[in-house]
Specification:
The complex is a heterotetramer of chains A (498), B (101), C (512) and D (662).
Chain A (H helix, E strand, L loop, with lengths): L12 H23 L8 H23 L4 E3 L4 E3 L1 H28 L3 H17 L6 H19 L6 H32 L4 H8 L6 H17 L8 H8 L2 H26 L4 H23 L5 H21 L6 H35 L11 H4 L1 H15 L5 H16 L2 H30 L12 H16 L4 H7 L2 H7 L1
Antiparallel strand pairs in A: 1-2
Chain B lengths: L3 H20 L3 H26 L5 H31 L13
Helix pairs in contact in B: 1-2, 2-3
Chain D lengths: L6 H16 L8 H32 L6 E9 L5 E8 L1 H24 L6 H20 L3 H19 L6 H32 L4 H10 L4 H18 L8 H4 L5 H10 L4 H8 L1 H4 L3 H22 L5 H19 L4 H29 L10 H4 L1 H14 L6 H16 L1 H30 L14 H16 L15 H4 L4 H6 L6 H22 L15 H7 L4 H72 L9 H22 L1
Antiparallel strand pairs in D: 1-2
The chains are: A mainly alpha (498), B mainly alpha (101), C mainly alpha (512), D mainly alpha (662).
């Protein structure tokens, strides 16, 4: 295994360019913010936006450069391939929208703008690293770079007890799960003698299945399970979502979760692929529990953010379904499952981001964040309510919105598996989709069919309006291109690049 | 073989950490328990690093990373605890139950 | 791209475009949404007539075909086309939408807001028409579901006092069914020897016996659930009376006129040809349920005190005749079903228009409140209601007759495969019950006419100066009245179109 | 001429449209259009009849085939092979019906000019009359059963509209609904029968069906079923026992309507249908026996009912039912006897109804107890009514004598139990007929006027049509004189459906039967005169003083109560309908609701129990056990973060065990 021994000190600046440009922007924000008068501080958002856009530019250049191949740095610990690029593109796209969401919110919030944008970009650096990480160490670092700024951002509303509390819960559960993850990683390292993902796979192939090793594999998966808020590692999510500033919640429920899935994909489909017959059923069961619990509890919520929190738990459940059908050695099936997760992730990012964008707009007029605040929104701000309806219906899976297509891929993959368990998973997705419609529809109904509380329209402002409109457009129109996502980055590129 | 001793030690350490996280009411003690868990990981990594003996000293390097990141984490954690203490004059973890269900 | 290839796409998506345009109408000029909707729906209707004019009546198979790849990874194509089975319903959907656009000049229920209302209506049009031209299961499904949302809003915002309940019930009921349907579609995709969602390809495989009996049974059950809820067949009908009763007039008209037909159309287009063996097994069940629906719908109608609810329940019975025709698996039965669908669309659409206008004038739907004597207070409205009611009860010479009698005729002589399976006697018994159903149907309609049209009008209505049919209403209704009368003697307008393709689609069953 | 016989129904169709759309703007409210079109149609009918009848006479003379012209087109296809046709079938039967329908209709049109004068919906009335005539003519002319069915249903709905013409009164609309629904119930049989015949012969075409029967290639059981089912339709439409109850109620309509629809034409549709399919029926003895028995029961039962009526129109209505019974019974064994009675009866019953209308018009009441002595004030009405009555009483040589006598002769010739039943009941029925008509004559025309106001003779338009109808009532019986020498040129030859049938079923005369019938009739008259010479009414009326029999008859054998109360109201509307709604709202909907509510409740339960108590409780348990071991523990309800952590770790442990074992 020559690449195992490749020099870990090699650096490919071009391959690292997107990360570097975001880092530069983050540092620039910290610096510039010091010299701006209080009322102009919000402009640092533009620096962040510039950094993200430059990173997107580099991303495009990288995509053109690697073609079907890959570039690597730090030995083989950091790899840029099509898979990584797709995720990076997703993250940077989400970053653009999170920045748009944050602009008005934090400029009215008035404090810690520089810190917030710095932390946000720092977290995105971690995300950009995540899909490229092909080494346990690198994965761990990327995960922590995503998490640690998240803890701070969740507690950014310093004088709100709820925010404090949300941050604390997030922190404790996060740290605990990282500890478990690390414990697992250390044992895996001990068994395989390497931290390289492909190396681990090679070592696990045909190795004796010691119970301790299997437990360690589970520990590693649990670490990511926390990030994607799978049951029973989901407890922090509703409280933290409720307490955090809304843009941060959006970040947590979309970007952070996507990063978790990126890591989970790499760990499961590369490193632990030989043990798929062990972890797949467990993840399948977790998927069912996650979506069922998420949906059933979401139904009870009166707080909009908690509702979306449980909804996002449920969606994590859907996304875990393809993991449940993976079979060792069945390349075609695994590739389908892999694509299904990717497509769902992208769709989920678009529609959930949209929902949070709309919530951000409404929260400005109604800080209480109750579902009741949305009563008669359709009469007050038809555009906003229309967009929100599109997002919610898409989350519910109403065609031809993008949410349906995402579910569709999961259906196909799980039926494709042809096993009773696969069919069971498909059936659970079906049943859950119907259950989920209850609460999505309830919100839609409240928005359109109840008498409004006031006639005063809610104006989201330019940045937020652009975000809402753009995301609504994507939610409606993306179905034209779902195929592209499914085919552009399939499992083979990840495995080959690893 | 000698590796059994440090590994057992690490496992015990981890369990103590877990126990602490679950049972201590004082937030700082909880943070310390987390540190114990991370320490267990570090012991594990160093042991395995020596046992595997790979050329890159991955285990040891990994341990360093864990320590560094652990320090950062605890820093953030203490900051959050401080924040809570300032707002409600209590560092009891189970007082933080404003949001539930 | 020629006109032949683009015709359907343009016609189907034009209303959606219109809906998009309407949303950009500023609120100050909300009234101008009506003219836009009128122009768009008229243009779309004219386009559909152009397709009708360009259609080769004698030919079999689909025309105006366009088949391009859409989602290649999953084998989903944008495959559209039209044949004799879909053409009548396709054109009818455009006609009804156009008439609804005309009618909305006359009246839109509280809270008004024509902009949103008409945009939804046009969206609905795209979904409805799309269902009839889709030759790819997934495309079909998308259009099928596309109908759901606008109708949900129509009922939920512009509906009666109990609108929210009705809207949610409608939505979840249909969604429930359609999810099963989607699963069945996927199952077909995977079970096909050559994976495809193409309806025509799957039909050929179905005819060639590529699907095992057990698979067919399961797949048919799932598809059945989806379509049966939409039709609605007894006992999946309970969403219908609520939805109809609460829906605004235009919503009821389109719901009864087109939406219900999507279910029956689905049976003819998808369920029967792709799963012929299961169809033979399920046909007796469908037949029995259909006849139960006929009798049951009529009995429920007798007990109704609410005019609109009565009409809604009458749909259950009428669709029962349609399903009975389908259950026979014979060309005559299918022809009867399609004719029944068109006739029901025209007649019941008209009845709902009338119910809406009556509600608008009397401010009540309660028959007792109306109190009779409408022929005196509003002679024209009364006569039109009377004519439509007798058409609905199946009077020969009017549109409602052929669908019923031919369905009975077909049921007396079901397909050879059903006879071989020993169901001949069952079907003949069903004929007798179905015929009894026609009497009950006549009964409740006459009873309704007696209570609404005849007698001396209560004083408050005779003095209220109720306005008779307005010119706009005449405009919206005249085409339906003409069709109601015309489709009786000129039934070839439908069966002439359908017969070749019905024969093609039924060949599997004809052999036994 | 017969090629263009479709013009005969087309004319009233055109006039119906013209009247309904433009009638209000015409000087006579549209009536003139109706009368004109009917007059032309009548002329055409005469021309067609001459052509057909002479051709048939010629056929008899040279042994050729009976006259038959069919012209048809396919209306639309219903499958690759089959289609629905529209076509006309002209033969002796349809030519005869043309004559009857157009003539009576024309008379009724003219009569209505006076009778309906000043009526609010005058135009609408004439529109309906034309529409009805068109429908009836479609029924008559149809060359296939489907088209016949169309006409059949159309006359039903016209009848509904005309019975309920004065719909302001609930009783009228009730009667209309009753009539429509009762006949429609019978139509179940018709529909099933038509479908069955299609199933047997693969066609609706009457010629082909007859050809099929002659070829003998049919499923006999199915055919019998179909024909018996058709009889059910006949029973409904022609008001035969037990579905006759609608006809007396139908008298709620304007009297001219009763004359046209409920005496001469529509109610004979059933008789016509059997006659139309006579060759088919004659191949199935069981069906023929059914017909004969039903007819026999009806003729007697209805005749008895006529005895106790006070309403003059109801007497005539029951009399009509009774006479229809004769026709139906006759068709059990003889084609010619049946349709001959149909033909003659059409004229004199229409005459009687028009006369009754005139009387009612004058007395402002339907009840005979409010009449009396009208012979003096309205002589023209009296004499025409008398002629009609005598014809109905079968007094020789008036129309009714010949046709009724023919039925009895044929019944005697047919023998067997059906023939004998018809013979006996028919003879008794004849006496009853005479009796109740005698009662009517005395109560209405004799004695002093008992009503209110001053009755006077009706206007010209209302007296001329009865006069015109009196002529055929007097003489029309002579066209089928049962003389062997005359027969080749008589009615039986004109209307035959095949030469063979005419040859094998000669019309004969039996002096014995004629004598017995006349004797019975005379007895009836004598008894009637004795009882009603002094025009006793009300409680004095001997027929109303018979106790139980009167009661039974007045309650119409309780059949109506059975139908209306028990079936229609109790069972269908109140019980079954309510039951269905109950089933709908409470059961089916409830199941769905429960499923929905169950899911919601399950969610709530899961949320309360599983999430909050179960998972939380599990969490509590895990947390507690750790706390115990630490020695400083209490039951802690709050303290969430650590419970979360505990749950998470518990999950890890459980999964780890699963993993390690798996």
């Amino acid at each position: 295994m020559p690449e195992l021994l490749s020099d870990p000190t090699t650096v490919d600046l071009f391959a690292l360019a997107p990360e570097l440009s975001v880092i530069v922007a983050a540092l620039a924000i910290l610096l510039v913010e010091l010299f701006l008068p209080a009322e102009r501080k919000r402009l640092v958002m533009l620096i962040g936006m510039a950094g993200v856009l430059v990173a997107i530019g580099f991303l495009i250049a990288l995509a053109a450069d690697i073609g079907g191949g890959s570039r690597a740095a730090f030995g083989n610990a950091f790899v840029v391939d099509q898979y990584a690029l797709l995720f990076k593109g997703l993250f940077l796209g989400v970053a653009v929208f999170v920045l748009l969401l944050s602009y008005r919110y934090f400029s009215e919030f008035r404090t810690y703008q520089g810190e917030y944008y710095f932390l946000l970009l720092a977290a995105f650096v971690g995300m950009l690293l995540m899909p490229s990480a092909r080494d346990l160490v690198m994965l761990f670092i990327a995960l922590e770079i995503v998490s640690i700024p998240g803890f701070v951002m969740a507690g950014l509303r310093k004088f709100d007890l709820r925010s404090n509390e949300g941050a604390l819960k997030f922190f404790i559960i996060g740290v605990l799960s990282v500890a478990v993850l690390l414990f697992g990683m250390s044992i895996v390292y001990g068994f395989t003698g390497t931290t390289d993902l492909v190396g681990i796979a090679v070592a696990l192939e045909g190795a004796e299945r010691a119970p301790l090793l299997l437990a360690a594999v589970l520990f590693v998966i649990v670490g990511f399970g926390f990030k994607v808020s799978a049951v029973p590692f989901h407890f922090w999510a509703p409280d933290t979502y409720q307490g955090s500033p809304v843009p941060v919640t959006a970040f947590l429920s979309v970007a952070s979760k996507a990063a978790g899935f990126a890591g989970l994909l790499q760990v499961c489909f590369v490193a632990f692929a030989p043990l798929a017959d062990v972890w797949a059923p467990v993840l399948g069961v977790i998927a069912v529990l996650t979506m069922t619990l998420g949906n059933l509890v979401a139904m009870q919520q009166t707080n909009m953010l908690r509702l979306l929190a449980y909804s996002s738990i449920a969606h994590a459940g859907y996304m875990l379904v393809p993991f449940g059908i993976v079979q060792p050695g069945n390349a075609a099936l695994n590739s389908d499952a892999f694509s299904a997760v990717l497509v769902y992730l992208i769709a989920y990012a678009v529609m959930n981001m949209g929902a949070f964008a709309a919530v951000t707009a409404v929260t400005r007029a109604h800080p209480g964040r109750q579902v009741a605040d949305y009563t008669g929104l359709g009469h007050r701000s038809p555009g906003l309510a229309g967009a929100m309806s599109v997002f919610l219906l898409s989350l519910g899976g109403v065609p031809p919105l993008v949410g349906l297509w995402a579910k569709f891929y999961i259906f196909i993959a799980s039926v494709e598996a042809g096993t009773p368990f696969g069919l069971f998973l498909a059936a659970m997705v079906v049943i859950n989709s119907v259950i989920a419609m209850f609460y999505y529809l309830a919100v839609v109904r409240t928005m359109w069919m109840d008498e409004p509380l006031s006639v005063e329209p809610i104006r989201p402002g330019f940045a937020l309006g652009t975000a809402v409109g753009g995301l609504a457009f994507l939610t409606v129109g993306l179905f034209v291109a779902v195929d592209l996502f499914a085919t552009s980055a399939n499992l083979s590129t990840l495995v080959a690049g690893g | 073989m000698q590796a059994a001793y440090p590994l057992t030690f690490a496992a015990l350490l981890f369990c103590v950490g877990v126990y602490g996280v679950l049972s201590r009411r004082h937030a700082v003690l909880v943070l310390m328990s987390v540190e114990l868990m991370l320490a267990a990981v570090t012991v594990n990594l160093v042991t395995f690093g020596a046992m595997v003996g790979d050329a890159l000293y991955t285990g040891q390097v990994f341990a360093l990373f864990v320590m560094a990141v652990g320090a950062a984490e605890v820093g953030i954690g203490l900051a959050i605890v401080l924040l809570i203490y300032r707002n409600r004059a209590s560092v009891n973890i189970d007082d933080a139950d404003l949001m539930k269900y | 791209m020629t006109w032949e290839e683009l015709a359907i796409t343009v016609t189907v998506f034009l209303p959606l475009l219109g809906a998009a345009i309407i949303t950009f109408v500023p609120r100050r000029h909300e009234e101008s949404a009506k003219s836009i909707a009128l122009i768009v729906s008229l243009a779309a209707f004219v386009l559909s007539l152009a397709i009708l004019a360009g259609y080769d009546w004698g030919a079999r198979g689909i025309q105006f075909q366009l088949n391009v790849s859409w989602i290649e990874a999953a084998g989903i194509n944008y495959h559209v086309g039209i044949d004799g089975i879909s053409l009548p319903l396709f054109v009818l959907s455009y006609l009804l939408t156009f008439l609804c656009a005309v009618y909305s000049y006359h009246h839109i229920e509280e809270p008004g807001r024509p902009k949103a209302f008409l945009a939804l209506m046009l969206m609905l049009q795209t979904g409805m028409a799309g269902c009839f031209i889709a030759f790819d299961l997934i495309l079909f499904f998308v259009f099928w579901e596309l109908v759901l949302v606008p109708m949900y809003f129509m009922i939920g915002i512009w509906g009666g006092p109990n609108r929210q309940y009705a809207a949610v019930k409608f939505f979840l009921y249909t969604l429930f069914g359609s999810v099963f349907m989607l699963v069945a579609f996927l199952a077909l995709y995977f079970a096909a020897p050559e994976r495809t969602f193409d309806i025509l390809a799957l039909q050929q495989m179905g005819a060639a016996g590529e699907f095992t009996a057990n698979f067919q049974r399961l797949a048919f059950a799932a598809i059945f659930l989806g379509f049966a809820i939409k039709v609605p067949m007894w006992p999946f009908h309970t969403w219908l009376p609520d939805a109809h009763t609460e829906a605004p007039t235009v919503g009821s008209v389109l719901l009864a006129g087109i939406l219900l037909k999507m279910g029956t159309y689905g049976f003819i287009r998808i369920a029967l040809p792709i799963l012929p063996d299961a169809a033979v097994e399920y046909a007796p069940i469908i037949g029995v349920l259909a006849v139960i629906a006929i009798i049951y719908g009529a009995l429920c109608c007798l007990a109704q005190t609410d005019l609109k609810r009565l009409i809604a329940f009458s749909s259950v019975g009428h669709m029962g005749f349609v399903m009975l025709g389908i259950a026979t698996l014979t060309p005559i039965g299918i022809n009867a079903a399609i004719f029944g669908m068109v006739a029901h669309g025209v007649i019941t659409g008209m009845l709902f228009f009338l119910a809406g206008s009556i509600k608008e004038r009397y401010h009540t739907r309660e028959i007792a409140e109306i109190g009779g004597g409408m022929v005196k207070t509003m002679p024209k409205m009364g006569v039109v209601l009377g004519l439509t009611a007798v058409a609905s009860l199946g009077l020969p010479g009017l549109a409602g007759f052929w669908g019923e009698i031919l369905a009975l005729l077909a049921a007396f002589n079901p397909a050879p495969s059903l006879v071989d399976a020993g169901y001949l006697t069952l079907f003949r018994v069903l004929v007798v019950f179905g015929a009894v159903g026609t009497v009950l149907t006549a009964g409740y309609f006459l009873y309704m006419m007696q209570r609404v049209l005849m007698g001396e009008p209560p004083e408050r209505w005779s003095e209220a100066g109720l306005r008779d049919i307005s010119p706009i209403e005449w405009g919206a209704w005249m085409p339906l009245i003409v069709l109601t009368v015309l489709l009786g003697p000129a039934a070839f307008l439908v069966t002439g179109m359908t017969t070749p393709d019905v024969t093609t689609i039924m060949t599997t069953f004809l052999g036994g | 001429m017969s090629q263009v016989a479709w013009l005969i129904p087309a004319l009233p169709a055109a006039s119906a449209l013209a009247i309904i759309f433009f009638g209000k703007r015409m000087p006579k409210g549209g009536a003139e259009v109706g009368i004109l079109s009917l007059a032309i149609a009548f002329v055409l009918a005469v021309v067609v009849a001459i052509e057909v009848f002479s051709a048939n006479v010629a056929a008899v003379a040279d042994g050729g085939e009976a006259f038959l012209t069919t012209v048809g087109v396919e209306l639309f296809p219903i499958s690759a092979e089959a289609g629905i046709n529209a076509g006309i079938r002209i033969d002796g039967l349809s030519a005869m019906m043309f004559l009857l329908v157009t003539f009576v209709s024309l008379m009724v049109h003219i009569y209505s000019l006076g009778y309906m004068a000043g009526e609010e919906r005058f135009t609408w009335y004439f529109g309906l009359l034309s529409l009805f005539t068109m429908s009836m003519l479609i029924l008559v002319v149809a060359d296939n059963l489907m088209l016949l069915l169309v006409g059949w249903e159309l006359v039903g709905v016209c009848s509904f509209l005309l019975i309920g013409f004065w719909w302001e009164q609930k009783s009228n609309s009730n009667a209309a609904i009753k009539a429509f629904l009762t006949t429609k119930s019978g139509d179940v049989g018709l529909v099933v029968g038509v479908i069955t015949l299609w199933s047997v012969f693969g066609t609706f075409d009457i010629s082909q069906i007859i050809a099929g029967v002659e070829a003998g290639a049919y499923n006999e059981g199915l055919l019998t079923f179909g024909l018996v089912a058709l009889v059910l339709g006949v029973v409904g439409k022609s008001a035969q026992f037990p579905l006759h109850t609608w006809l007396p109620d139908a008298m709620a309509g304007p009297t001219p309507v009763s004359a046209l629809i409920h005496a001469a034409t529509m109610v004979t549709a059933g008789v016509f249908l059997i006659a139309r399919l006579y060759p088919v029926y004659s191949a199935v003895p069981a069906a023929q026996a059914t017909i004969a028995v039903i007819g026999a029961i009806t003729l007697l039962m209805a005749g008895l009912l006529a005895l106790v009526q006070d309403d003059v129109k109801k007497v005539l209505a029951y009399s009509t039912i009774s006479q229809l019974g004769y026709m139906v019974a006759a068709l059990g064994f003889s084609y010619t006897a049946g349709i001959f009675h149909l033909f003659t009866h059409g004229f004199f019953k229409a005459l009687l109804f028009l006369g009754a209308g005139s009387i009612i018009h004058a007395a402002h009441s339907n009840n005979m107890s409010d009449m009396g002595g009208l012979a003096k004030v309205m002589p023209r009405t009296f004499y025409t009514f008398l002629i009609g009555s005598l014809a109905l009483m079968a007094v020789p040589p008036l129309a009714g004598f010949w046709s009724k006598d023919e039925i009895l002769v044929e019944a005697a010739a047919a023998g067997a139990y059906t023939g004998n039943l018809v013979l006996v009941l028919g003879a008794i029925g004849g006496a009853i007929t005479v009796f109740y008509m005698t009662r009517v004559l005395y109560l209405v025309f004799a004695g002093e006027f008992r009503g209110y106001g001053h009755p006077h003779e009706s206007p010209q338009t209302m007296t001329a049509p009865p006069v015109a109808l009196a002529v055929p009532s007097l003489f029309i019986g002579l066209i089928n004189l049962p003389l062997p020498a005359f027969q080749p040129y008589a009615f039986s030859a004109w209307t035959m459906f095949s030469t063979e049938y005419w040859v094998t079923h000669p019309i004969e005369f039996s002096p014995l039967i004629a004598f017995v019938a006349v004797t019975l009739a005379a007895a009836g008259f004598v008894v009637g005169r004795l009882m009603y010479r002094d025009a006793p009414v009300g409680d004095a009326d001997p027929m109303l003083r018979l106790g139980l029999p009167t009661r039974i008859l007045q309650e119409k054998y309780y059949l109506d109560r059975l139908y209306t109360d028990l079936i229609t109201l109790t069972l269908v509307r109140d019980k079954l309908g309510a039951a269905s709604v109950w089933l709908n709202d409470r059961v089916i909907d409830r199941i769905v609701y429960l499923a929905g509510a169950g899911t919601v409740g399950f969610g709530r339960g899961l949320y309360d129990v599983a999430d909050q108590k179960g998972i939380d409780g599990l969490v509590n348990g895990v947390g507690q056990s750790t706390r115990w071991s630490g020695g400083r523990l209490r039951l802690a309800q709050s303290g969430n973060v650590q419970l979360y952590a505990g749950a998470m770790l518990a999950g890890v442990v459980v999964l780890a065990v699963v993993f390690a074992v798996g």
